[in-house]
Sequence to fold (324 residues):
Amino acid sequence: MSILSDVNPAGDPAEGPAERAADQAPAGRRPRVGLLGTGPWAHRTHAPALAAHPGCEFAGVWGRRPEAAAELAHAYGVKVYEDPDALFADCDAVAFALPPDVQAPLAVRAAAAGCHLLLDKPVATTLRDARAVADAVRLHGVASVVFLTLRFAEPTAGWVGEQAARPGWFTAAAHWLGAVFPPDGAPSAYADSPWRKSKGGLWDVGPHALSVLIPILGDVTAVSATRGPSDVVQLALRHTSGAASTAVLSLGAPQAAAGVGLQLRGTEGVYELPDWRDVPGAYGRALDALLTAARTGVPDARGAEFGARLTEILAEAEDQLPAE
Fold:
């Protein structure tokens, strides 16, 4: 059910997006967006942002734990769904707050049902699954956006655009050190996530670092990876611009050592990633980007194809790491 897409899945140019939208929905109806997932991220970010967004209607919730889905749906006065396919049938777009390898096959089903996709990162943890999502987006003519926080939060999103326009980058150093599993204190609310325990900082926060480095320095042409203490992974990257970069990633940093940073060095000087605390607003802007891509038919650069590329880089890095 899609009232927004400018892409004709059948490839027939005779019917334009305005005609299809008029045929499929009452005039003036806001697009209906459903939420899949009931964990801390869904409670803290997805559901509040969907409920507050003036450009869409928060339609309902599905989760793998029916009681949790019912609780979240009740908090926002929306429908609880026992079947994800029923949610897809009722919605124009769906937002995912699920582990990546649960998200990927459901995203393929949602795209086949005509739903636009607001995906979480990483899209998947295997290239096969990530490519399946990107291929489904293209095949079914739906829009997609991957919620990469730094690419939608302000002032970081604007900063990335400004640095991407500067010439002469030489090198960059990024770090994202989370204290989800700190050795010196209580774990965070996200510590109960089995996939985070299994995949660590490389897969959880690696997409964030890459999502900033790539638009500024160019795609990755070579990657090497080494392990450090705890779940620390250090990446050494070469980019199409010729610049070199590093990224140090972890979810097991001591609380006093946790933090996020990125420094760029080039012919015009040294530039630091600005501070940001704008996660709810960032999610709203990611939804704006999805609705715009759906309305115009112009794919967003932060969509499923970019998500698949991030998975490819991370999988190549993981293959280089010795078994723990």
